[in-house]
Amino acid sequence: MLNETLPASSVPAETDQDYASCPEPNANKYVKGFKAAAYILVILLSLFGNAMVVRVVHKNRRMRTITNYLIINMSLADLLTTVFNMLPTTYWIFHGLDVWAVGGWLGETLCKLLSFAQTLSISVSVFTLCAIAFDRFFAIFRPLKRVITFRVAKGIIIASWLSSIIVSGPQLYVSTTTGEKGLAQCVEKWSPLFDEATAPRDYTIALFVLFYALPLTVIASLYTVIMLKLWRRRAPGQELSSNQEHKEKTNRKVLKMLVTVVIVFALSWFPLYVRMFVMFAESDRYVCGLPYDMDFLTLYLGHANSAVNPYIYVIFNENYRRGFRTVLSRRKRGSSRLQSTTRRTKSTRLQEKDAHLLRVDSRENKAASRGRKKESAEILLPITTTTENL
Length: 390
Prior knowledge:
Strand content: under 5%
Distance between the termini: 119 Å
Number of helices: 9
Radius of gyration: 34 Å
Number of strands: 2
Helix content: over 70%
Low-confidence stretches: 1-20, 376-390
Largest sheet: 2 strands, antiparallel
Strand order of the largest sheet: 1-2
Oligomer: single chain
Structural class: mainly alpha
Shape: flat
Mean pLDDT: 80
C-alpha cells in the first residue's frame, strides 16, 4: 500500500520475498475504523473545498486574477491526489488489499498510474507555489509593470503539468506488480536500464531536492524579501494615500495566506521524506518497513494537505469567504425554492380539485333547475289552453 505514496518505494525491492512473513498491519477493527474515518473526512473536505475554490473563482469575475488562477491549478492537483491516492488508500484500509492486488494487466496499470499520479500532483503543487511566489514578488517590486500576465500565467500552468509529467515519468517504467493474483504487490524494478541498488535512492534524493528543498528555499527567500518590503518602517513624516494604504494592507493579507499555505505544505510532506530516507539508510533493519502506525501517519499528513488548503483561503481571504457563502446560500435557496414549489404544487392540485368539484356541482344544479322548469311548464300548459278556450 505504501508503495503508492510519494516518489520512491518505501520498501526496497530486494525485500519483496519477505513480505509474506511481515505482520498484518491493519488487524485491530477499532484502529481500522478510526483510520478509515480519518481518511473519509479528508476526502470529503478535499472534494468539497477544492471544487468550491474552482467554482467561486469561475463565478466571480472580480476573483479572476492571476494568483487565483494559479490557486485553481493547485486545487486541481489536490483533487488528483484525492481521487487517485486517497480513495485507493481508503480501499486498502477497508479491505486489507491494494487496488492493484487483482493482478494482471489491470493491476499493473493501477500500480503504475497511482504511483505516477502521486508524484505528478506534488510536483504540480510545488511548481505552482513557486509561480505564485514570483508573481507576488513582481507585484510588490514592479507594481507599474505586470511581469506575469494572464498569457504568461497560462504558459506557466501548462509548463507545470508538462514538466511534472516528465519528472514523474520514471514511475511509469519502474512501478510493477509482483506476486499472485489477489495478493499482488506494487514494487519498483529499476533494472535493466538502471542500477537496482542505487537508482531508487538517487531518484528519491533528486525528487527531494527538486520538489522540496530547492523550491521551498526559493519561496522562503522571495517571501522574506517581500515581508521586509511591506513591513519596513516608513520614514518619519512619510504618509501614504488612502489608496496606497489599502493596497499595502491587501498585499499583507494575501502574503500571510500564501506563507501559511507554504508552511503547511512543508510541514505536511516533511515526515514522509524523512521516513523514506530512514528506510534507505536502515533497509536491513526495517525489512517490513517502519512501524505501520508511523507509516500511516506520515502518508496521512501528506494527503491531508490537499484538504487543508481551501480552508486556509477561506480563513485569510474575505473574497473566498464571501464566495463560499454565496454558493452555499444559493444552494440553500434552491432547496427552499424546490420545497416551496412542491408545496405550491400540492396546494394547487388541491385547489384545482376543489374548483373542479364546484364546477361539477354547479352544472348538476343548473341541470336540475332546468328539469324543474320544464316539468312546471308541462303542468301549466293544459290550464292555460283551457282558459283561452273559455
